[in-house]
């Protein structure tokens, strides 16, 4: 299990290859990358967090996924700071004996990271900046777990 919270960008291909190479015994590796959405109005996003608190929360979420789906490995990379449209925000990777477990665990991680990891996001555009509020549909997504 590897959890990284960083300001710097990361190479998706390098991270995926490295993760897959270390996933010995796994029959499935699933990766997901979230990017800053471009809606025509937003130019950038600023993501804030509390060091230590954030890593602890993500570690607990990943540990729960690893136990629930018997993952052989998991990776979460999440960025903070100023990111522009199209830049990767985060990456989740899971490795398991079978694809059903790897996909389910990745979806669980994405849903819980979106709603429970302590990050605060501000969208910045030509009209100014606004903090992103919690969305009902993100909370509702947790009910399936």
TrEMBL record:
<protein>
    <recommendedName>
        <fullName>Molybdopterin synthase catalytic subunit</fullName>
        <ecNumber>2.8.1.12</ecNumber>
    </recommendedName>
</protein>
<dbReference type="InterPro" id="IPR003448">
    <property type="entry name" value="Mopterin_biosynth_MoaE"/>
</dbReference>
<comment type="subunit">
    <text>Heterotetramer of 2 MoaD subunits and 2 MoaE subunits. Also stable as homodimer. The enzyme changes between these two forms during catalysis.</text>
</comment>
<comment type="function">
    <text>Converts molybdopterin precursor Z into molybdopterin. This requires the incorporation of two sulfur atoms into precursor Z to generate a dithiolene group. The sulfur is provided by MoaD.</text>
</comment>
<keyword id="KW-0501">Molybdenum cofactor biosynthesis</keyword>
<dbReference type="InterPro" id="IPR036563">
    <property type="entry name" value="MoaE_sf"/>
</dbReference>
<dbReference type="Pfam" id="PF02391">
    <property type="entry name" value="MoaE"/>
</dbReference>
<dbReference type="GO" id="GO:0006777">
    <property type="term" value="P:Mo-molybdopterin cofactor biosynthetic process"/>
</dbReference>
<comment type="pathway">
    <text>Cofactor biosynthesis; molybdopterin biosynthesis.</text>
</comment>
<comment type="similarity">
    <text>Belongs to the MoaE family.</text>
</comment>
<dbReference type="GO" id="GO:0030366">
    <property type="term" value="F:molybdopterin synthase activity"/>
</dbReference>
């Amino acid at each position: 299990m590897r959890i990284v919270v960083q300001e710097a960008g990361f190479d998706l291909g390098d991270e995926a290859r490295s993760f897959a190479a270390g996933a010995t015994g796994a029959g499935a590796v699933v990766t997901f990358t979230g990017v800053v959405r471009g809606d025509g109005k937003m130019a950038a996003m600023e993501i804030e967090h509390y060091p230590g608190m954030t890593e602890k929360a993500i570690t607990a979420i990943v540990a729960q996924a690893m136990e629930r789906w018997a993952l052989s490995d998991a990776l979460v990379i999440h960025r903070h700071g100023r990111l522009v449209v199209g830049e990767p925000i985060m990456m989740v990777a899971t490795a398991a004996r079978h694809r059903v477990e790897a996909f389910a665990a990745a979806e669980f991680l994405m849903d819980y990271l979106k709603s429970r990891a302590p990050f605060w996001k501000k969208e910045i555009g030509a009209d100014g900046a606004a903090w992103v509020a919690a969305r009902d549909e993100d909370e509702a997504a947790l009910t399936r777990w």
